Amino acid sequence: MEGSGATTSAVVSFAEKLEGQSSQFYERLASSFPSHRELFLGLARDSRRNRMLVVRTYQETVTDALETGYSFRGLVLKDLSPQPWQEGLGLQAALREAIAFEEKAAGFYSDVAERSKTLLSTIHAAFKKVAEDRRGRLQKLRALAASQQG
Predict the structure, then answer these.
(1) 51-92, pLDDT tens digit by residue?
(2) Global pTM value
(3) Which residues, other chains included, contact 88 with Cβ-Cβ below 8 Å and sequence gap of 6+?
(4) Rounded Cα gap, residues 47 and 69, in angstroms
């Protein structure tokens, strides 16, 4: 979705889709790498929780009147989804893809959080929390990748 600005509804729908793809991606990694199953299942659970947080916050606080008057000017919603997982690729390849995905997702949520400061504090706080969660995921994934290189 490209253009001069995205509505709050479009941004929330985009985030909802992103979190669904994220959850599926990590569930596939959990089944592909049993020794790291708990980490990947935890990331999948976090994605479902993030989805619920963003959607619920939007549903509880945004009205049609607010929706029509607010635009995330200049925001381009582009596909951030992880590459389709191919069975048989090693853990390092999976971690590289997961790290790249989390970097893009953290950037998206940080950008949206910053842009939503003037909308409603609850919307801003929800996006900020998800951005922080994504940065925490990056640390976990980078630590695992570093431990696998030696």
Answers:
(1) 999 999 888 887 654 555 567 777 878 877 776 667 778 899
(2) 0.84
(3) none
(4) 29
